[in-house]
Amino acid sequence: MSESTPPTAPDLDENAVRLLGVINLLAEMAMQTLKQGEADGARSFVECIETLQVKTQGNVGDVETQAFEGILYQLRMAIVKGPPPSDDAEKPQDTPSDES
Fold first, then answer.
1. Terminus-to-terminus CA distance in the chain, angstroms?
2. Is residue 14 included in any domain, yes or no?
3. pTM of the model
């Protein structure tokens, strides 16, 4: 009886792995920027990823293409949705007291 091998990631060359790392890094930075309430900054990271997608078109495999499409979709939807409410937004503002 043969041992079953665990499922492995598709065969990716070193450059594909690096490209996926760069895409994920830019996506994480976009999400952090969005969480800070800076949608314009997040859009800049999306534009960087879009530029990479265009400039590598035809030179990437299915895995990278799906990563570009999936990550860009998620980021665009997150930007449209807006940043999550901060903890400060849930707390009532202190009203100044009239101690004159």
1. 88
2. no
3. 0.73
